[in-house]
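Let us begin with a simple case.
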Amino acid sequence: MSKTDNALTELGVAAIRDGVASGTFTAAEVAAAFNTAAAEAQGALNAFIKLTPEKALEAAAKVDAARAAGQPLGKMAGVPIGMKDLFATCGTETTAASKILEGFVPPYESTVSQKLWDAGAGMLGKLNLDQFAMGSSNETSAFGNVISPWRREGSTAELAPGGSSGGSSAAVSARIAPAATGTDTGGSIRQPAAFTGISGIKPTYGRCSRWGIVAFASSLDQAGPMARDVRDCAIMLEAMAGFDPKDSTSLNMPVPAWETSLNADLRGKKVGIPREYRMDGMDADVARAWDDGIAWLKDAGAEIVDINLAHTKYALPAYYIIAPAEASSNLARYDGVRYGLRDLPQGAGLQDMYAATRAAGFGAEVRRRILIGTYVLSAGFYDAYYTQAQKVRTLISRDFMDAFQTVDVILAPTAPTAAFGLGEMVSDPLAMYLNDVFAVPASLAGLPAMSVPAGLDRQGLPLGLQLIGRPFDEQGVLDAGLAIESRAGFTARPAKWW
C-alpha cells in the first residue's frame, strides 16, 4: 500500500466520517485503502469468509455523489465495515461459518445491516466466526480458524482472536477494517474485543433488531459494534439500533444521541465491584488490570462500592443449559429440505436425508450443543434442567437489579485470561466454556455491557475490562468506558507480521 493508503487505514469511524464530510479525502479513497489492506491480510489472518470490494466501492461512490450534490450525509458516511457472516446480506452469500449454509444467498437484508447501509456504511466483506456463533476461540468455523494479529512476546505461536466474533475482532485490531458488526450471546462481542485490544459493546437486549440474524439462542442473541475506541462504538451503535416491527423482541424506544452525550466525568456516579468475580487463583495480570480500572474510575470522580452478586457462580451452568436448548430448537430448520446443504445418499428416505445432511453440515461443537439442548428439553429432564436454569436466570437478573439500587455501573474483568493459543483448549470443551465466566451473567440478564482495553499482560497481550449497566443505560456504560479509555492510554497494537 502507498503511504496515503496506510494513513487512511489508521483512521477509525469518527475520523473517516468527519474527513469524508469535510472533503479531506473521498469515501472512494478510504474504501480502496481498506479493500487493499483486507486482501493483503486475508491469507494470513483468514478474518473474512468472503471479501466484497465492489460493495465497499459502490457504497463509497454513493456517499461521494451525495456530498458533491450537497445532500446530508449519514452517521456512517464513507465508513467501510466488516459484516459478521451471521447477518443476512441480500445477494451476498451468508453461511454462519457452517457448511450446511454454504452457497445460501439471501433474497433479503437483515435490519441491522440495512440500517448501516442507510447510514452510509459500505461492506468490505463477510467476516469469519465460530460456526453458528458457537465458540470462544474462532476454531469451530467450517472455513478455517481466524488467526489473531497479536503474538506473545518472543513467540510466533498462533493465538485465538476470541469468539464467536473472532473475524470481527481480528479485522479491527489489524487495521483492515475501521469497525465491524458482532453478535453477543454469552460474551461474543466482549471477549474477542478484550483478546485483541479493541472496544465492543453489547447493548440492552432488544436495542438492535435480531431480524435477519442467523439465530443461536433467541433470548440471548444481540448485535453490537466492535471498533477501536468508545466514540466509534457509540457512533456505530446509533446507526444499528432502533425499533423493528419485524422483531417481536425489539424495544420500541427512541435511539439516544450516545456520541454527542459522551462524558468521562463520573462525579456523582457509583461503581460496583462484585466480590464474587474476585475468584481464587485469578490471573495476576487480570487482577492488576481490574485494580487499575478501579483507580481510573475513582480518578474520574466515581465512588467505588463493593456489591454482592450472589448467584454469579450458577450463571455458567445455567447459560450452558439455556443456550443449547434454544439452539437445538433454532437449528432444527436446517434439514436439507428448503435451503443450504442437502446430502441424499443413494436410496435414502426422508429421515436418512435429514440425518446425513445434518451430520455432514454441522461441525462437532454445533452437534455437541444440539445434543445437550435436545437432552435438557426432553421428557423427564425439562423440569430438572431447563426449568431450573430459567429460575436461576431470574435470580441472576434480580441480583443485578438489587445492585443497581445503589450503583450506576459495574466494573469487572472481561475474560479470566489474555488470549490463549489456537489448539490449547479445543480438546477440552469445559475449559473453553469457562472462558465465558465473567461475560455470561450480563447476557442472561439482558444488560448493556462493554469491554474496553486496559493494558497488556506480562507476555505483551491485551487485557480488557468490562462495564455492565442498567437496562437501557448504554450511555452510562459508554461514559464509564470513556473514563477508563482516557486514563488507560492504551495505544498498543499488534506488530504487523502478515
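The second case is a distinct protein. As before, the sequence precedes its C-alpha cells.
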Amino acid sequence: MRNKLHPKNKSPWLAELHRKRDLLSLHESVSCDLLVVGGGIAGLMTAYFLLTETSQKVSLLEADKVAHGATGHNAGQMVSGFEKGFKSLVERYGLPLATRAQQDILQAWDLLEEIKKEMDLETPMHIFTGYSGFTKLEDLLEHLENRYWLKEGGLPVESILIASNFQYLKTIPEKFQNLFAIAPHGRILELLQTKNEDYMAVSMSKAGVTNSAKLTEELATKLLALYPSRFKIFEKSKVDKISLHKESAKVYSSEGHQIQASRVVLCTNGFEKLTIENGTGPNIDDSFHTLVKGLVGYMLGFYEPAGKNPMSVNYHGSETSTLKTETEIPPYFYLTRRPYQEDRSLLCLGGPEYLIPDRHHYDRDTHIFPEEAHTAMDSFLKKNYAEAERRISYTYFWHGVMGYTPSGLRCVGPDSLNPVLMYNLGCNGTGILSSIMGAKRIADHINHKKLEPSIFDPIYSEKK
C-alpha cells in the first residue's frame, strides 16, 4: 500500500525540466560507430566527448527518458572527492595511483567549465566553498588523516578549523598540527549554518550545485542540433542483451530491434537487468557487472526566501535512520541550497539510504518513501539547521538509486575480457564530476591515446 504521507516520488529537478524535444524510440534496426547506453549525465557527457573529439557516428539508448533516472533523482551536488577516504585509496592502490585519481577528479572542474563555454549552456551552476562539520574526535582525526595523505601526494589541501574550546584539542597528533587552524566556536557554527553546539570542527573544499537533469537535457538538445548527421538519441528503448564479438557488438532492445556498433559504452548506474554475451571468451555476466549494488538515497526539499547564498554542507556525527545496511560508508546528512525560480530558494536535505539486494527490481514510481526516513530527516533539520522553523512545509520528497561498484569507485574504460564493451558507470554517491572525468577518458581510449594506469580501470573496479 502506498504511503499516504508521500504519494509519489516528486523531484524538484524534474519539476524544472521543461522539455521541448520530441521523443524518438528505436523503431527499426540501425547501425552506428559508437553506442552509448544510458541517458543520464554520464551518457550525455560521454556522447559530448565522443562527438567533439572523434568524427564517428554516435547513438544513445535510454530505457526511460533522458535525465529521468538517477540524474533526475539525486542531491545535485558537485564534489571533488570520493565516498571512500583518500587514506584508504592510498593503502589499497599506493600514493601515486591515488593521487592521480584525485587529480583526474579535480581536473573535471575545468572540463565542466569548458563544456559550459563551448556549448553555451544556460543551466545555472553555482560554484563555491562547501563545508563539512564534525562532532566526534574519531571522525575529525580520520578527516585529518585523509588531508595528511592528500598533502603527501602534492595535492591542494584546503582549510580545517577547530573550535578553540574543543576539549580534545591537545590530543590531536603532532603530524596534523599544520593541517588546521584554531577558530572561535561561534565561527564554526556560523560556517555550518547550525545551532547545534556539538559541532566543533569544520573543513572546507570546492563544491557546487546544479540541476543535473536540466543540464543533461540541455546538453542533449544542443548536441542533436549541432551534430544532426552524427548523433541520434533513442528513448523508451530498453537494452535486453549485448552480444560481443571481436571487433563489433550487437545490442538488442526489448522491442526486438538491434543496433550494430563497433564499440558499446555502458553509462548506467551499473544496476540494470541485461544479459551480456561474450563471443570471445568467459561470460562477462560472471564478472563484477552483476555485483554492483543499488543504494536508494532519500531526499526532501522546501522553499526559503530568495536572496540566500547557495551552499553545500555535510554534517558528520549526527545520527541518521537505521535504513542504511551492509555498507562501509559512514552515515551523514547533507544540506544544499540554491536559487529556485525567481522568488525563492530551495533547500534540500538527504542522508538516509537503503541497500537493495543485487539485481532487485527498484521502481522509482512505486517505491515508498519510508516514514522512518522522513522522521529522521525532519528531526535532524529542526535540531541542526540554524534557520529551521518549528513547522516546515516540505514541498518535495524524492529518492533515487545509486550504483556502487565492488571497489566503491567509478569504473571507466574497456572491459578486461572484451574491449568492445566499455564502461563509464557506477555513481558511488559522487556522480557529476566523476561522470565528466570518465567521459573524457572514454574518448581518449577511443582515440588510442596512451593513458596511465588508473584506479578507475575495470581491472581494479571488479574487486572489493
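The mean pLDDT is 89. The radius of gyration is 22 Å.
Keep these points in mind for the review questions at the end of the chapter.
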